[in-house]
Every structure is written in structure tokens, then in C-alpha cells.
Write a structure and sequence with these properties.
It catalyses: ATP + H2O = ADP + phosphate + H(+). GO terms for molecular function: ATP binding; ATP hydrolysis activity. The protein has three domains: about 160 residues, no CATH class; about 210 residues, Rossmann fold, CATH 3.40.50.300; about 100 residues, no CATH class. The strands form three sheets. A seven-stranded mixed sheet has the order 9-8-11-12-13-10-14, with helices on both faces. It has a five-stranded antiparallel sheet with strand order 4-5-7-1-6, with helices on one face. By secondary structure, it is an alpha/beta fold. About 45% of the residues lie in helices and about 15% in strands. About 20% of the residues are buried.
């Protein structure tokens, strides 16, 4: 007993001596000692901890790109581990094809997965204020509340090689299989929130095909051949050292089918479409982030580039000079303050850098489509060859285009009024949209689809004959209305304006 007391007395004396010595040391020694202790203790705990963790964040560093591995894990857990979860989340997203909600794990829900005898724990960590980072392997314990939104998996140390070499690759493979099986074409558009730009998508099933486009047959065949050749030209672009991308400039008056052409391209190639709104983007850095977050096999569209390009050119030239120039050309005037004249804006050079500049190589199998109503107003830097590979003019409706519309809308290939309509179309500039509007069945005539269905069910007889006669009369009415409207347009174009008449 006395020996035990002596030990405690000696320990107390040693601690008192250490405390006295510690108090006499300089302050910087205290800081160094605290740093060493705070570094060694977690390492010591990690050494004795038999489990390791991998964190998979939703976004990469600085939210530069969305982490596809995060999406892969979400899809994998949704298909394999939902039965064991007690906290679920239900959503009816824009991509849903039916009334079934999309079920997924709720935040802070933990599930267990088994793979080749290894037990693996998954947990969805919610968002927090801490900055996001890339996918990392972490052996240090950490407070989940200080981590960003991420999936965190834990496993025993002896299964490390199995998880890294087999388990995670299998998660990615299953994700790609699900994507292929549930492939749905999407239409993306960008929006801004808290100074950041993001993509949002909706299902995209455009009804337009090249058969429906009112255009010269040979010209249409050239476009189809060009698109098909591009889709199969991966090895060629790699051989010549060019980025696998292509640019199209669609120009023509409003109503000539530029948007319809984009839908037909998407249907032909099976690509997603990104509708880029430059007016909602803060600067070139945000534009760069949006471009890097687009997927391969996609069509990137900027509509009415003639209106937007005025603003971009103004930014490049500088406020007053460009504003006066645009005003003289009767274009949209964009006034810039001195504060934003040199920075904080999307510039034309920044946009062109992604079309065929340094950043154009970041991605493959992409098509850039610009549309404009006034090709003569565009900056020459935008229209030069090599930047926009093909310039496609969407012109007014002529007789060949009209016959395609008549076949699509009225299911006829010839009519007694075709000759007169052809002559009028050569004399009057009218758009395919205006012609199609005249060929649309209205009011009691909207039963054309029902008539076609009944005709298919019948093989002749008096009822069949009556239906065919009715459809023929409806076609007569549509074509007669078109002739009347074309004659009015011809007379209007031939009549000089009232002011001109007074001057004469």
C-alpha cells in the first residue's frame, strides 16, 4: 500500500514539474505542440480503426462540373438497396414517362450492400456550408455536418482492393446499363441562381422529321447526308487532329422552319438538345462552366444570334462607340456602364472560344446550331468558314416545298389548283408556316385523323366513298383558302404604301 502511495506521489510531482516547465516555455512552442498533438491523435485513431471511407461528392471542386459518379451511385442504390431503407424520398420529375414517382434515399439514411462477401455501408450526407471538393478517399473521421452533399461508403480495410477494383466499377457499369435501357431524349435550358448558372431539363420528343420540312429535296438530302457522315466520323476527326464537332448556321425569315430543322436533327441523330440563353449568363467563366457540363452526343443551340450578337459585339468594342454604330444600323442598342465595360460580361470572343477555339476540344460529338433572321447583321468573325461549317438558308415557300406540305397535311399529291398555287408562290414571298396554317383543318374539318382511321377499317362500300368525298371537299376548301390568301398578299405587295403614293 505504501509503495502505491509513493508511486502516486512521484507521478504528482512529475506532473507539477511538467506544468511548471510548460508555463515557462515560449508561446510559439505551445502552438507547435498543439499542432503536433492535433495531427497525431487522428492518425493514431485511424490506425486502430478497422474501417475506411470513400466520399463521392455531387459536384467537383468549385462546383465546376457535376460529378457523374454521384449520379451513378444514386441510380445504383435506387435499384438495389431501397428495400432495406426506412427513410425514402419520392419525386415526380420532368423525366417521368408515367404516373409512377421516382423513389430514392433520403438524406442521412444508411443502407447496407453486400458484394462478394464484403459488407458495405452507404449514407447520403446532406449539404452544408463547407466548400465542395472532388471525389476523395478519406481515412480520417469527420463530422458529417461539415461535409457537402455526398454519398459516403464505409468498408473494412481488408476489402479495400475489392471495393476499388471491382465494386465501384460494377456500380458504374450498372448505371450505364440503366441509362441505355431508359434512354430518353432531353431538352436542356440554363438558368441562374445566386450568381451561378445551371442546366435544367425536360423530356424532348419533337414531332418534326426531315420528311415534314418544306425544303428542296436535293438540299434536304445533302443535309441528311452531312449529319449522318458526322455521326460516323469519329476516326476521321481523330486522324486529322480536329475536334469532333460541327457548326450549322440556319438563317432566313421568321416562320421558315429553323426550329423545326433543329427538332428534325435531334430525331435523326438521337441527340439531346441544349438551348443556351446567353442573356442569363453572368460572364465568360459561367459560360465555360455551362459548356463543360454539357454531354457528348448533343446539339447546342443559340437562337436569334443576330439579336444577342449585338450585345456581345457591344461588350467587345466598348459602350458608346458600339451603341452609336448599332443605332445607325437600326439594330438593338445595348448601353453599357463604365463599370461593366471591360469585365463581368459574356463576350463574343468567349463564345467563339467554345465553337472552334481552345475549349472546343473539351467534349466530342457535338453540334453547334446558330439561328438568325438577319444573317447580314452578324459579325464576320461569327460567319466565316471553318467556324460555321454549313450555312443553311431557310427560304420562302416555293412549289416543291408546298407539295411536301400538301402531302403531310392533306395527304394529296395532285389537285386542279396546284398549277395556280405554284404560279402564285413564285410571285409572292410567303413562309412555310403561313402556307401550313392555310392547310390546317379547322372547326368541323378537324376530324381528318378520325376519317383516316375509318378508311383504314373499311374496304370499300358507300360509307367508304362518302368519307373519301368528304376529305376531298375539305382539301378543296383548304386549297381554295390558300389561293385567296396568296392573291391578297400579291395585291398587297403590288400596292405602294400610302406615304409613297402621296409623294408621287
Amino acid at each position: 500500500m505504501a509503495l502505491s502511495v509513493e508511486k502516486w506521489v512521484g507521478f504528482g510531482s512529475a506532473m507539477a514539474g511538467f506544468g511548471l516547465l510548460w508555463s515557462r516555455m515560449p508561446e510559439h512552442v505551445h502552438d507547435e505542440a498543439r499542432y503536433i498533438i492535433s495531427s497525431l491523435v487522428p492518425m493514431l485513431i485511424s490506425y486502430f480503426n478497422p474501417y475506411e471511407q470513400i466520399s463521392i461528392f455531387e459536384y467537383g471542386e468549385e462546383r465546376f462540373r457535376r460529378n457523374k459518379m454521384f449520379d451513378a451511385v444514386s441510380t445504383y442504390l435506387r435499384s438495389t438497396c431501397l428495400d432495406a431503407a426506412s427513410k425514402l424520398k419520392a419525386e415526380l420529375g420532368n423525366r417521368s414517362r408515367d404516373d409512377d414517382p421516382l423513389i430514392s434515399l433520403d438524406e442521412n439514411q444508411e443502407v447496407v450492400d453486400n458484394f462478394d462477401g464484403a459488407r458495405i455501408w452507404w449514407r447520403l450526407i446532406p449539404k452544408s456550408a463547407k466548400q465542395r471538393g472532388p471525389t476523395v478517399i478519406s481515412f480520417l473521421p469527420g463530422d458529417s455536418n461539415e461535409q457537402p452533399r455526398c454519398y459516403r461508403l464505409a468498408f473494412h480495410k481488408r476489402h479495400r482492393k475489392l471495393v476499388l477494383d471491382s465494386y465501384l466499377p460494377s456500380v458504374v457499369r450498372q448505371w450505364r446499363e440503366v441509362l441505355t435501357a431508359n434512354r430518353q431524349r432531353l431538352l436542356f435550358t440554363n438558368y441562374s441562381r445566386e450568381g451561378k448558372s445551371y442546366w435544367i431539363d425536360v423530356p424532348y420528343n419533337p414531332p418534326a422529321t426531315f420528311n415534314m420540312i418544306a425544303m428542296d429535296h436535293d438540299k434536304k438530302a445533302e443535309i441528311i447526308e452531312d449529319l449522318t457522315a458526322f455521326r460516323e466520323a469519329k476516326e476521321y476527326h481523330s486522324k486529322v487532329g480536329k475536334a469532333w464537332k460541327r457548326g450549322y448556321l440556319l438563317h432566313g425569315p421568321p416562320g421558315t422552319g429553323k426550329s423545326t430543322m433543329i427538332g428534325a436533327m435531334a430525331n435523326l441523330l438521337g441527340y439531346d438538345v441544349y438551348d443556351l440563353d446567353l442573356t442569363s449568363i453572368k460572364d465568360n467563366a459561367e459560360l465555360r462552366k455551362l459548356f463543360l457540363d454539357t454531354t457528348d452526343r448533343s446539339i447546342i443551340v443559340i437562337e436569334d444570334i443576330d439579336a444577342i450578337e449585338v450585345e456581345l459585339t457591344t461588350n467587345r468594342k466598348g459602350g458608346k462607340e458600339a451603341s452609336e454604330e448599332n443605332n445607325n444600323n437600326h439594330q438593338l442598342v445595348i448601353e453599357l456602364s463604365d463599370k461593366n465595360k471591360d469585365c463581368g460580361k459574356v463576350t463574343l470572343s468567349g463564345l467563339l472560344g467554345f465553337v472552334d477555339g481552345l475549349w472546343s476540344a473539351c467534349g466530342s460529338e457535338r453540334i453547334f446550331v446558330f439561328t438568325t433572321n438577319h444573317v447580314d447583321r452578324l459579325d464576320p468573325a461569327l460567319t466565316r468558314r471553318g467556324r460555321m461549317d454549313r450555312h443553311i438558308e431557310m427560304s420562302y415557300c416555293r412549289f416543291d416545298a408546298f407539295k411536301m406540305l400538301a402531302k403531310s397535311y392533306l395527304d394529296i399529291t395532285e389537285h386542279s389548283l396546284f398549277g395556280e398555287i405554284g404560279q402564285l408562290l413564285n410571285e409572292v414571298d410567303t413562309t412555310p408556316a403561313d402556307v401550313a396554317d392555310n392547310l390546317m383543318l379547322r372547326g368541323s374539318k378537324r376530324n381528318c385523323g378520325e376519317i383516316d382511321r375509318l378508311l383504314d377499317e373499311m374496304n370499300g362500300g358507300p360509307v367508304d366513298l362518302m368519307l373519301r368525298v368528304k376529305r376531298r371537299r375539305e382539301a378543296d376548301d383548304c386549297l381554295a383558302g390558300l389561293v385567296e390568301n396568296l392573291k391578297k398578299a400579291k395585291m398587297k405587295s403590288a400596292t405602294p404604301p400610302m406615304e409613297d403614293a402621296k409623294e408621287e
